[in-house]
Design a protein that fits this description.
alpha/beta; two-stranded antiparallel sheet; 13 strands; single chain; 6 helices; Spore Coat Polysaccharide Biosynthesis Protein SpsA, Chain A; seven-stranded mixed β-sheet; 25% strand
Length: 220
C-alpha cells in the first residue's frame, strides 16, 4: 500500500494544485519511486489511498500496467483517515497476508528486504538514523527488536511490513498509526532493521529543493 491521501500543508503552495505524491525528486514523481520499489520487490498489486487531489494521482498512475503492476484505489475523499485509518479502510483490498505500506512522501534508495515475520510479531519496521531537524527519534533497536527504550535513537522511515491482524480490531474512522506502533513495541511485538542509506522525509519545500540539488539525474 502507498499512503498518498494527505493534504501536504507544509508543502504549500506547491500542493495547492499538485498532490504531494506527484511532486518530483530527481526528475521523477515521488509516487513513481514507490511504485518501482514495490515492483522490484516482487509485489504484484498495490493499493493507493486517495484524498486531496486524488483524481490527479489516478490520472498519472492509471491501472498500474505501465509499471508492471495492478493498482487499485481506496478513496477517502474529504474525510482523510490518517495513516492508521487509511490502512484500516483498505484492509479488504490488502488481503490476509502481510503487506508493505509506504508513505508516498519519502525518498530513498532502499530496496525492500525479504522479510518473514516471527509468529507473534505484528510488523517489521525500517528505521533510519534520526535526521538533524528532529529533536528525538521514535524507537530504539536491539537485536532486531524495535523498542521504545532505553533511548529513542532511530526514526521510523514510513516503510513497514504489517500483518492485517494489527488493524482488524480497530474501529473504522480517522486515527494515526504511531500510537499503535508504540503499543506494539511496548508489547515486544515489533521486529525491524536499521537502514543508513539515502532516506529523506520530503516534508517541506526546503527539503524538496535540497533533495533535487543533491540527486539531480538520479531518476534518469
Amino acid at each position: 500500500m502507498i499512503l498518498a491521501a494527505g493534504r501536504g500543508e507544509r508543502m504549500r503552495p506547491l500542493t495547492d494544485r499538485t498532490p504531494k505524491a506527484l511532486l518530483e525528486v530527481a526528475g521523477k514523481r515521488l509516487i513513481d519511486w514507490q511504485l518501482e520499489r514495490l515492483r522490484n520487490a516482487g509485489v504484484l498489486t498495490v493499493v493507493i489511498n486517495l484524498g486531496w487531489l486524488g483524481d490527479s494521482i489516478i490520472g498519472h498512475v492509471g491501472d498500474g500496467s505501465r509499471y508492471g503492476l495492478e493498482v487499485v484505489y481506496s478513496p477517502e475523499d474529504d474525510l482523510i483517515l490518517e495513516t492508521g485509518g487509511g490502512i484500516r479502510r483498505a484492509l479488504p483490498m490488502l488481503g490476509r497476508q502481510p503487506f508493505w505500506a509506504i508513505n508516498a512522501d519519502v525518498f530513498s534508495d532502499l530496496s525492500l528486504p525479504a522479510v518473514e515475520l516471527a509468529a507473534r510479531d505484528l510488523a517489521h519496521l525500517v528505521l533510519v538514523p534520526t535526521p538533524a531537524y528532529k529533536r528525538s527519534g521514535d524507537f530504539d533497536l536491539e537485536g532486531g527488536r524495535v523498542r521504545r527504550e532505553p533511548a529513542l535513537r532511530f526514526t521510523f522511515s514510513g516503510i513497514g511490513l504489517y500483518r492485517p491482524e494489527m488493524f482488524a480490531d480497530c474501529e473504522p474512522g480517522r486515527f494515526p498509526l504511531a500510537p499503535m506502533l508504540f503499543q506494539a513495541a511496548a508489547e515486544n511485538r515489533l521486529q525491524g532493521e536499521l537502514y543508513d542509506g539515502v532516506w529523506e522525509d520530503v516534508g517541506t519545500v526546503a527539503r524538496l529543493e535540497a533533495l533535487n540539488r543533491r540527486h539531480a539525474g538520479a531518476g534518469a
